[in-house]
Amino acid sequence: MSVGYSVVYHDGHYVPSAAAVLPVGSIALRYAVSVFEGVRLYAGAHGAVTAWLLDQHLERLRNSCRIMGLDDDECAEVPRILRHLVEVNEVTGDSYVRIAVSAGNAGGIDAAAEPVLTVTVTPSGRKRWLADDTGMRLTISGWSRPGPATFPNEAKNISAYAGPRLALAEARRDGYDNCLLLTVDGLVSEAPTATVFLVEGDRLVTPRLADAVLPSVTRAWVLATAADLGLSAAEEAVTPDRVRAADEVFLCGTGIEFGPVREVDGAAVGSWPRRPVTARLVEEHFAQARGHKPATHVVLGLEGVHR
């Protein structure tokens, strides 16, 4: 991972990155109570960097805070904090912002959480799937996402990534670049840090939120943008066989941006490297993110999602 910029925001102060620490006895470290968002900064035509879909990310962050019992009052300060970090660190290129709200106080498993806000910025360009136009080798994992009665999948909490981390490590040991996790019922859910879309003819299909899927901001953008590109888009139950039979497959998310998939379990996807729908979405994404075109109006629709 790239080294981040030297100045970060942590617990009310702008400090060197090495000073942004939590106590060893904090609830965040003992019980994994820490929610976060990743936000992309993109350099525009005139050199200024802009946070892409920041409002939607902050909406989801507040929702995660409510689910995990963390006060979300400081979320309103994030735009101001981010502007200062960009200025003091002299950020001019594409970057990745991590915004975390963590339970920084000590206590037992039932103790009330006292939130600590941390904001960091790290230079970040394209992953190799886009930079080198290589395409991912994907596998369907034997690991599954938890059901809604086990953990609320709509909370972007660090504990939700422990199982997917193991699944990704296993996939890479087996020679794959990434993997798809299944629901407990055997339906396709999502990748460890990204959502998945299939292209079937002129239709875009992605698993339903009910299939243990995080309400992804990039997912919402793709669904909202599809109509502008003359595509229909649907959220449906997706089986592993349906992924293998798709004309195109891609992963998307803030960190990965877009990850075109060239193979699933060793079999070529569609007519790879031909992937016209994915290419149009990638082109549209960067045109909007860099301010060359108006941004699609994106609604996450989180009302009623949390329990």
From TrEMBL:
Pfam annotation, one family: Aminotran_4
GO terms of molecular function: transaminase activity
Transmembrane is among the record's keywords: no
Keyword Kinase: no
Gene Ontology biological process terms in this record: carboxylic acid biosynthetic process
InterPro entries from the UniProt entry: Aminotrans_IV, Aminotransferase-like, BCAT-like_C, BCAT-like_N, Class-IV_PLP-Dep_Aminotrnsfr
Keywords: Aminotransferase, Transferase
Record-linked PANTHER family: AMINO-ACID AMINOTRANSFERASE, AMINODEOXYCHORISMATE LYASE
Family per record: Belongs to the class-IV pyridoxal-phosphate-dependent aminotransferase family.
Protein name (record): Aminotransferase class IV
